[in-house]
UniProtKB/TrEMBL annotation:
<dbReference type="InterPro" id="IPR027417">
    <property type="entry name" value="P-loop_NTPase"/>
</dbReference>
<dbReference type="GO" id="GO:0005829">
    <property type="term" value="C:cytosol"/>
</dbReference>
<dbReference type="InterPro" id="IPR041095">
    <property type="entry name" value="EFG_II"/>
</dbReference>
<keyword id="KW-0507">mRNA processing</keyword>
<dbReference type="InterPro" id="IPR035647">
    <property type="entry name" value="EFG_III/V"/>
</dbReference>
<dbReference type="InterPro" id="IPR005225">
    <property type="entry name" value="Small_GTP-bd"/>
</dbReference>
<dbReference type="GO" id="GO:0003924">
    <property type="term" value="F:GTPase activity"/>
</dbReference>
<dbReference type="InterPro" id="IPR009000">
    <property type="entry name" value="Transl_B-barrel_sf"/>
</dbReference>
<dbReference type="GO" id="GO:0030623">
    <property type="term" value="F:U5 snRNA binding"/>
</dbReference>
<keyword id="KW-0539">Nucleus</keyword>
<dbReference type="GO" id="GO:0005525">
    <property type="term" value="F:GTP binding"/>
</dbReference>
<dbReference type="Pfam" id="PF03764">
    <property type="entry name" value="EFG_IV"/>
</dbReference>
<dbReference type="InterPro" id="IPR005517">
    <property type="entry name" value="Transl_elong_EFG/EF2_IV"/>
</dbReference>
<dbReference type="GO" id="GO:0071007">
    <property type="term" value="C:U2-type catalytic step 2 spliceosome"/>
</dbReference>
<keyword id="KW-0547">Nucleotide-binding</keyword>
<dbReference type="InterPro" id="IPR020568">
    <property type="entry name" value="Ribosomal_Su5_D2-typ_SF"/>
</dbReference>
<dbReference type="Pfam" id="PF00679">
    <property type="entry name" value="EFG_C"/>
</dbReference>
Length: 721
């Protein structure tokens, strides 16, 4: 029984799709009971957004690693994400029975295999964390071993306690410290030594743990978690420092760091769960301070709320409250700080995450940071109802499905086409199932999947570009050039902060907001095919601003700033960028060549190919363009008779070969294009799909004086007038 797979689609597919909360009281091995709030998250890499929303309201994570497969792509990404969110990590090496029954490893080799997994995890922790104390080891009590098939779960401590209970005169705490590493037991002297007493002596872990297992207890895991993860009160300060956007010196922040149930109400919701009929949503979150009560009026702060701009906030009345136990809920009247809660009645203003606080007397309350996902939604599908009169039903369904999936994005193109963006094929398949069957209950047509592109430049603008406002009173001059390598990624990862010192430029300051809005408008929808501009910096070289405020309003400056962004961009050798997936394939040695063949047919290239220690499988790591990844897994299984298993996740953006503005390239329909023609093909097809003309029109982006300047300098353009 997969108890936390509560959805019909999860049971049908045999894969977790939604994170499922469970609250229960469980005892540890010493007989002490704890209230555990557990979130079972999906294991498939497409649904990592569910993991992100769950980690935000948790104090620690238990990471399950298959003993036979070892550390895989998703394991590495989860470790990195947990370190970034400052989580306490417990490792459970699962399915240890596979070492015995499938791989048929002798006990000594099984020990080496388990030790290799622990060493690999520590290598990743060392790479991603600056905290030298962040180490996992069976000796520290943050690694346990399990086999669900045989209902076994143990740590060194729990195993040594079995011996202590059997033989009586053993100190199980001291004994457990001698059950890992290069330590041997000498039966003659009855002492432990670091040197093997005889040539065929086994390490203590093999002799006392693995050999009894081969010859042939779930409290061990909870003891392990209790020893590793802090309590809600113990981990509150770290949680608040990392997630709260307000200052930490206020009474409100102090109440949150103390997890005070008598303090002002602060609740952070990170997930929305729909009711069984799919009509309403219940917000799921964690109470950080105060006590939330049924029937209480609250203020819901959205992700765009600030103290200066309070538009994204709404007063709501809390309906019923529940404690979730996966397949059923327990209704309660109040939930104090430190607990998870399912809230009715506050779903209307919440889209993704929200901060719930008291409506009065809590004016300094600020929001918790929106979720930062470790992947990107780059796969795009267009949808429309089979019956056009059912469009309102589909729009209502799109709004609901947008609430249900944390990293899903829905938008309307200029052509009127409704677009859904997700992380992968399985993800979008689940989204479409929910949209059709749960939320809109109508027939919906789906276009072939495509990917999002970005626009960039590879050189500095060939000349200074300027644009005048319609009233001829203002003029802005700019150039565009590529960003330094790695800077865009550092900005995304918040390594580089945008805090520049102000100088006294009063007149420029008065139009700064308008210029920034024009810049953001231009970079959000680039000139090539209305896709975001990336890896480009724009320099304002000169600005002539009208003295009278009437002549320098937003209506004059914003469109002008956008035009000069476009003209500077087009003068700097523009190029298209496409998303690339990082792919990890596990396959037997005799299937490796078939994997290479499938990747090569899809413009992929292999970066690493190595055997998995203690296993007959190989791991092949590669990069593949997202646009060529559709049907990749099916293709791979076909060519390897179902023996290969692939995981793919967004990794980086890369420039598409070829010049998108080269009009000498003829795109022949229904024929694969050679590499130098790809950029042109992608641009034309994207523009057609969005209802734009096939080529970039220069007159839209260049003023007449600018065109005269180009003519004077003999600049040859590939663009139509």
């Amino acid at each position: 029984l997969r108890y936390t797979d509560t959805l019909f689609t999860e049971q049908e597919r045999g894969v977790g799709i939604k994170s499922t909360p469970v609250t229960m009281v469980l005892p540890d091995s010493r007989g002490k009971s704890y209230l555990f709030n557990i979130m079972d998250t999906p294991g498939h890499i497409n649904f990592s957004d569910e993991v992100t929303s769950s980690i935000r309201i948790s104090d620690g994570i238990v990471l399950f690693i298959d003993a036979a497969e070892g550390v895989m792509l998703n394991t590495e990404r989860l470790i990195k994400h947990a370190v970034q969110e400052r989580m306490a990590i417990t490792i459970c090496i699962n399915k240890v029975d596979r070492l015995i029954l499938e791989l048929k490893l002798p006990p000594t080799d099984a020990y080496y295999k388990l030790r290799h997994i622990v060493d690999e995890v520590n290598g990743l922790l060392n790479t991603y964390s600056t905290d030298e104390t962040m180490v996992v080891s069976p000796l520290l009590g943050n690694v346990c071993f399990a086999s669900p098939q045989y209902s076994i779960c143990f740590t060194l401590g729990s195993f040594s306690k079995i011996y202590a209970d059997t033989y009586g005169d053993i100190n199980y705490t001291e004994f457990s410290k001698r059950l890992w590493g290069d330590i041997y037991f000498n039966p003659k002297t009855r002492k432990f030594t670091k040197k093997a007493p005889t040539s065929n002596s086994q390490r203590s872990f093999v002799e006392f743990v693995l050999e009894p297992l081969y010859k042939i207890l779930s409290q061990a895991l909870w003891t392990c978690v209790c020893n590793t993860s802090p309590s809600p009160q113990g981990g509150a300060r770290t949680k608040i420092e990392h997630t709260y956007t307000g200052g930490l010196d206020s009474d409100l922040a102090e109440a949150m760091t103390e997890c005070d149930p008598e303090g002002p109400l602060m609740c952070h919701t990170t997930k929305m769960y729909s009711t069984e009929d799919g009509v309403q949503f219940h917000a799921f979150g964690r109470v950080l301070s105060g006590t939330i009560q049924a029937g209480q009026p609250v203020k819901v702060l959205g992700e765009n709320y600030t103290l200066e701009d309070e538009e994204d906030s709404q007063i709501c009345t809390v309906g019923r409250l529940w404690i979730s136990v996966a397949r059923y809920q327990i209704e309660v009247n109040r939930v104090p700080a430190g607990n998870w809660v399912l809230i009715e009645g506050c779903d209307q203003p919440i889209v993704k995450t929200a901060t719930i606080t008291e409506p009065r007397g809590n004016e300094e309350a600020q929001i918790f940071r929106p979720l930062k996902f470790n992947t990107a939604s780059v796969i795009k599908i267009a949808v429309e109802p089979v019956n056009p009169s059912e469009l309102p039903k589909m729009l209502d369904g799109l709004r609901k499905v947008n609430k249900s999936y944390p990293s899903l994005t829905t938008k309307v193109e200029e052509s009127g086409e409704h677009v859904i963006l997700g992380t992968g094929e399985l993800y979008l398949d689940c989204v479409m199932h929910d949209l059709r069957k749960m939320y809109s209950e109508i027939d919906i047509k789906v276009a072939d999947p495509v990917v999002t592109f970005c626009e960039t430049v590879v050189e500095t603008s060939s000349l200074k570009c300027f644009a005048e406002t319609p009233n001829k009173k203002n003029k802005i001059t700019m150039i565009a050039e590529p960003l330094e390598k790695g800077l865009a990624e550092d900005i995304e990862n918040e390594v580089v902060a945008d805090h520049m010192e102000q100088v006294d430029k009063a007149l420029l300051g008065s139009v700064k907001d308008s210029i920034v809005q024009g810049f953001q408008w231009g970079t959000r929808e680039g000139p090539l095919c209305d896709e975001p501009i990336r890896n480009v910096k724009f320099k304002i070289l000169d600005a002539v601003i009208a003295q009278e405020p009437l002549h320098r309003g937003g209506g004059q400056v914003i469109p002008t700033a956008r035009r000069v962004v476009y003209s500077a961009f087009l003068m700097a050798t523009p190029r298209l960028m496409e998303p690339y997936y990082f792919v990890e394939v596990q396959a037997p040695a005799d299937c490796v060549s078939a994997v290479y063949t499938v990747l090569a047919r899809r413009r992929g290239h292999v970066t690493q190919d190595a055997p998995i220690p203690g296993s007959p499988l190989y791991t092949i790591k590669a990069f593949i363009p997202a646009i060529d990844s559709f049907g990749f897994e099916t293709d791979l299984r076909t060519h390897t008779q179902g023996q290969a298993f692939a995981l793919s996740v967004f990794h980086h953006w890369q420039i598409v070969p070829g010049d998108p503005l080269d009009k000498s390239i003829v795109i022949r329909p229904l024929e694969p294009q050679p590499a130098p023609h790809l950029a042109r093909e992608f641009m034309i097809k994207t523009r057609r799909r969005k209802g734009l003309s096939e080529d970039v029109s220069i007159s839209k982006f260049f003023d007449d004086p600018m065109l005269l300047e180009l003519a004077k300098q003999d600049v040859v353009l590939n663009y139509p007038m």
